[in-house]
Amino acid sequence: MKQRVVVTGMGVITPIGTSCEAFFENALKGQSGVRAITAFNSTEEYSNIAGIVDKAVDYNTFPEIRDALMNKSRIKRFAIASTYQALSQANLFNRKELLLNCSVYVATAIADIISMEAQYLKASVRDEQYDWAKHDADLFDSNAFNFNSICEDIAASFELKKNVNTIVTGCTGGVDSVGYAYRQIQDGYDQIAIAGSVDCPITPFTVGSFSKINATSMRNDVPQKASRPFDRDRDGFVLSEGCGILILESLEHALKRGAPILAEITGYGSCNNGEHMTNINPDGEALSRAIGNALESIQVNVADIDFINLHGSSTPQNDVAESNALEIIFGDRAKSIPVTSTKSLIGHPLSASNSIEIISSICSIQSGFIHPTINLDNQDPKCKLNVITSTRKRKYEINKVLKVSSGFSGIHSALVISKYK
Amino acid sequence: MHDNGVVITGYGTISPDSSNIPKESPPSNEILVRYVNDDALLDIPRRTMKKIDRFTALSILAINKVRDMANLGESSYDSEDIGLFVGNIFAGWGYVDQFMENLYTSNELKLKALNPYIATAWFPTAAQGEVSIIHKYLGYSKTFSAGILSSGFALLHGYQQLLSKKLKAAITGGSEAVKSSIIAPHLNDYKNLVPYQEIGEGAAYLSLEKESNAIKRNANIYSRILAVTSGADYLYTVRECLNKAGVDKIDGIMINNTEVSDSILELCSGLPGNKILPKQLKMPKMNLLGGNCVYTIVNVIEYYKKSDRYLSNILITFDSGTGRNLCVILSI
Question: What's the complex ipTM?
Answer without folding.
Answer: 0.97
